[in-house]
Amino acid sequence: MFNGFSVTGSSLELLKIGEKGIIQFCNTQDVNLLNQVISLGLTPGTYLTVEKQFPNFVINVRQRRLAISKEIARKIYVRIVNR
C-alpha cells in the first residue's frame, strides 16, 4: 500500500514561514538574474530561513534579512532541513 512520502527539496517559493533550507542551485538561464542572486550572497550551500512571504519574500541569511521578489524565490531551489 501507499505509505506516504516526504519532500526534501523544493523551490524557495514553496517554503512556509519558519522553514529552513540550504540553497542547492538557481534554475535560470538569465545571466542578469543569476548575477543578482549571486550578488545577494545566495550561493549553493547557503543556509536560510523564511521569515515572510508577502508582498516579497523575506529570508534570514547569515544573520541578516533580505527581501527578494517572488520571481527570484521561484528560481532558487533548496534542500529543506527542518521537516
From TrEMBL:
<protein>
    <submittedName>
        <fullName>Ferrous iron transport protein A</fullName>
    </submittedName>
</protein>
<dbReference type="InterPro" id="IPR008988">
    <property type="entry name" value="Transcriptional_repressor_C"/>
</dbReference>
<dbReference type="InterPro" id="IPR038157">
    <property type="entry name" value="FeoA_core_dom"/>
</dbReference>
<dbReference type="InterPro" id="IPR007167">
    <property type="entry name" value="Fe-transptr_FeoA-like"/>
</dbReference>
<dbReference type="Pfam" id="PF04023">
    <property type="entry name" value="FeoA"/>
</dbReference>
<dbReference type="GO" id="GO:0046914">
    <property type="term" value="F:transition metal ion binding"/>
</dbReference>
<keyword id="KW-0408">Iron</keyword>
<feature type="domain" description="Ferrous iron transporter FeoA-like">
    <location>
        <begin position="10"/>
        <end position="80"/>
    </location>
</feature>
